[in-house]
Design brief:
single chain, alpha+beta, four-stranded antiparallel beta sheet, two-stranded antiparallel ribbon, 3 helices, 8 strands, 26% strand
Length: 193
Amino acid sequence: MAGPRGPERVPLPDPVARHPLHTRVVECRGYRRDDGLWDIEGTLEDTKTYAFDNLMRGSVRAGEPVHRMRMRLTVDDAMTVRAVATASDAHPYGTCPEVTPAYDALVGLAIRPGWRKQIMERIGGVRGCTHITKLLEDLAVVAFQTIGPLLVREGKVDLSVTRPRHLDRCHAMRADGPVVREQYPAWREGGDE
């Protein structure tokens, strides 16, 4: 139910007494480049609240990154990957950075339905890094959030002619729901009247 300042908030219940141990921070940003392409960048960082020993790095201090992986996807308006840059700044094993060139296999793929499946076919399992591959899911969302609205705003995409890519991707954006009825009536399918 919406209130005067937007949707009603539904907070988590209060937790029992507890102690923080591990934090993962994912930060992603979308940029428009001067050459007409788009850069979608992300960082995934894991830290712990305690020091521990690591065979490769010796002692890892509390708050020091266990993992710090970064990636930049350069894409065009159709969200086709034109270039990939990957870095493994902090990692637990000496062999971790060896896999970063494998992500060049993404060049030519389009961010669209089936993205995750295509990623797994090219760099899944031992061909890639679990953390960098996970970051790709967030980068895809940020690509949609960055590129789509701006192309609509600039009149390059007409949503009365082109079906929005995010329809039927979550409960709120289901084609037979009230949000689509109000915001995208051309794409409304059945549902409550």
